[in-house]
Amino acid sequence: MKNKKNHSLHSKAATWLLGGSMVLTAVVITACSSSPTPNYYTISPKVTPSVNSTIRVIEVLPVGLPDRLDRAPLVLQDSNGKSTVLDNERWTSTMSTQLRDTLSAGLQQKLGAIDSYSSGLAGNNQPLYRVSTDFSHFDIVDKSNINVAVSWVVKRQIPPTQLQSSNAKVITNAGSQLNCRIAFKQPIDQKAKKLEAIVSASSEAMSQIINTVSASIVALDSNKKSVINNGVCS
Fold it and tell me: What percent of the chain has pLDDT over 70?
């Protein structure tokens, strides 16, 4: 009789444990299924091709970016320097990759050139213009503007076969490097939806950067002084 009673108690305990585990599993599944789906954004600048460009090959290197910004989630800052990471509002890649790919695509479209870094292609006997870029700021501040500060170096590399040509520019390779920097604030439209306005302002900021960098490349190609707004080249 005692054995039957113990068996009954064990059965009830097992049933209770099984039921408890099923409840726990249901809670975990419900918690996972209720997690919000992230929204993804990409920077899409508007670029007008240059009709006078003779540049055919560029090489856009990976950009420098502070660790505080180099992530996929959008990062907002207030005027006191406090940062808020929006885990469910994301760029389609890390910010440094987003900036490099946007700069590369924009310069290719603007100049009618190919990027040998991303494509693996190289122009036959064409001067190559290598662009290295460092963003010290691309900060979304107070939801009112994007603070941008960027420096870049453009280096011209002449193929050995062209060094023997009759073109004075490529024989001497005079002025083979430009060092530039700009800083500006890109306003964020306060009447538009917050995230859409931030992405739009980011795209407009990159449009200005692409136009300025491309102008410096064209100036180097022509051995002319580069004059840029909100910055300097030397």
Answer: 76
